[in-house]
Amino acid sequence: MKLLSLLLVLASATMLASCSESVMIRSEPPGAKAYVNDGLVGTTPFVFSVQRGDLQHSYSLRLEKDGYEPYTDTLRTRIAGGRATGAFFTLGIVYIFRSPWYLVPPRLITLEPSRQNERDRRLGQDLRELQQLRGEGKITQEQFEERKRFLLEEK
Q1: Domain segments of the chain: what residues?
Q2: DSSP codes joined into one string, 8-68
C-alpha cells in the first residue's frame, strides 16, 4: 500500500513537473507577426508558453506588421520570489511543481508607423495641395510641373 501511494505521488509530481511558463504578448495595433528566437510563434495578441524543462534565461522577440517599423526586444526570466520563499518553507518541494524562474511579461508594445509610409503620406498631401493651387489658377502649369518635379526629387 505504501509503495502504491509513493508511486502515485511520484507520478503526480512528474506530471506537474512538466508545467509551463507563459506570458501574454500584445501589440498596438494588434495583428503583428511575432517571432521568438527567429521562429514564428503567432500573431498578437497571443500567449507565449515554454515548457519548464525548456525555459531559458532570455528569448529574442521580434514583431512585424506591414506599414510599421519592426520591433525587437528580449523576453527575460527572473527568479520568482514567492516560489523561492515557498521552496524555503517546503524544503524545496515546491520546485518539483514549478520552476524557480518565471517569464517577465512585456508591457503593451506600441508599434511605430513606418517612416517610409509617413514620407509617402506627406508627399501625397503636398502633391494634392499643389494640384489644388493649379486648379484654382494660383499657379501656372509650368510652375506646377517645376514644383512637382522638385517634390518628387526631394522625397
Answers
A1: 7-110, 115-154
A2: HHHHHHHHHHT-EEEEEE-EESS--EEEETTEEEEESSEEEEEEGGG--SEEEEEEE-TTB
As a dihedral over the C-alpha atoms of residue 20, residue 59, residue 54, residue 64, rounded to 10 degrees, the angle is 70
Q: In 10 A of CB 14, how many CB atoms?
A: 10
Q: Of the candidates 44, 54, 59, 46, which has an alpha carbon nearest to the alpha carbon of residue 20?
A: 54
Could you tell me the pLDDT band of residue 50, with boundaries at 50, 70 and 90?
A: confident
Q: Tens digit of pLDDT for each residue in 26-47?
A: 999 999 999 999 999 999 999 9
What is the Cα–Cα distance from 7 to 11, expressed in whole angstroms? 6
CB of 33 closer than 8 Å to CB of 40? yes
Preceding amide of 29 cis, omega within 30: yes
Residue 11: pLDDT band by 50, 70, 90 thresholds? very low
State the Cα–Cα distance between residues 5 and 94, nearest whole angstrom. 19
